[in-house]
Amino acid sequence: MPSDAMPSDSLTSLDGGVDGYGSAIRKRENTQGRDLSYPPLPEPLTVPVYDNHTHLEISDGEHPLSYREQLDRASSVGVRGVIQVGGDVETSRWSAACALIEPRMLAAVAIHPNEAPALDAAGTLDDALAVINELAGQPRVVAVGETGLDFFRTGEEGRAAQFRSFEAHIRIAKENNLALQIHDRNAHEAVIETLLKVGAPERTVFHCFSGDADMARLCADHGWYMSFAGNVTFKNASLLRDALFVAPRNLLLVETDAPFLTPLPYRGRPNAPYLLPNTLRGMAAHLETDVSLLSAQITANTELVYGRWDAEPVTAAHDDPGPDPTPRGGIA
Ligand SMILES: [Zn+2]
């Protein structure tokens, strides 16, 4: 679940699987008024980068792509790998399982802050957190996320559950020595207070950074990473670009949050890791720096936060029976 999901952006479950075909297990329902075709491939980057936050479990567009097709397209334009991010038990399991068989993918696992209130009300939040803790110990799971606070989509009544869940995720990240990927929507102060109260993990990332220049300075003071998404290219995002401008280069990361937040000039169309170069080029233009220099810096930062994509081997090779449009069974 993305930072910019609108109320119309509901997701439905699909019967997908992780058996080498890589069918998505969620579908984006918001089709109204959008161009549902995938944008063209950008010019390849000279220096490769990583997309440190994406949702390949969510299908979008008229002709959805499997995660392998997504990663093939990404590779062809210099996007070397992705962090595949879960937001509930099922998508976290899917993320961890895919990362085990796909060398270009590492995984992040968590209960999204907008999922926590319903689980808490049902009395199952602790069970879900126990699954996340277990997944956090698996090979090629390199981050706990996305977790955090969302005061945009969740009202007052759900906040206690969000805080409880966020604090638990911070502890899981530290106990497993993993990076933390934070979802912060309309909740900057509360997120920062919670991080300071519980103690932030050594490698803490604000996914889809949405603060202003002052917040960027504060994050810099604490050594927290700021990951910019396609919305940094939007016309109305001058505060975000101010934040980018003051963020130290050694704390910058880049992401798609696909299928959401498609960078200009394709805003509204399905987003995908292969469109990361558009965001990166927008950032480099704003910073008046060379795209390759920025790519090299961000790649170094990304590997410091998550390690190298080949640090832990995949445990099984893909079967390669070719494209198969048939949805497969879930991974239970
Ligand atoms: Zn996300």
TrEMBL record:
InterPro entries: Metal_Hydrolase, TatD-like. It comes from the Bacteria. GO terms for molecular function: hydrolase activity, acting on ester bonds. SUPFAM superfamilies: Metallo-dependent hydrolases. One of its GO terms (cellular component) is cytosol. Residues 1-23, 313-332 are annotated as: Disordered. This is TatD DNase family protein. It comes from Cryobacterium flavum.
